[in-house]
Amino acid sequence: MTDFRNPAAIAPPVGAYSHAVHVTGPGQWLHIAGQIGVDAQGTLASGVQNQADAAWKNLLAILADAGMSVQHLVKITTYLVDSKDLPAVNAVRKEYLGECRPAATLVVAKELARPEWLFEIEATAFKGD
Length: 129
Known about the structure:
Layout: E1 2-5, E2 20-23, E3 27-36, H1 48-65, E4 73-80, H2 86-97, E5 103-108, E6 119-128
Parallel strand pairs: 4-5
Antiparallel strand pairs: 1-2, 3-6, 4-6
Helix pairs in contact: 1-2
């Protein structure tokens, strides 16, 4: 069972996420490595919004391959190289997550593993038996 937690004893989340996700019972965990904005042929998308879109598509394909969907996400970590890109990547995130609110962390880093990468996302998912 997955329970999205936002205790009344603390301020509500400042964005589209939950403070915590409490998972109980038997099930399957899926840990997804950082996904960047490349398509199935390995071509990097241009611009941060297109890279975010491609990375989310990759993340959803991995979830589907494991018999899961965005509703099974319990934690995501997003990496950006420029905080000015936050509105654009939030729009893409909303498109893919809808009303799902996994626990989330956003990191603005000086750079990612390659200088042309502008966006990366990693995730953890759980599917109860």
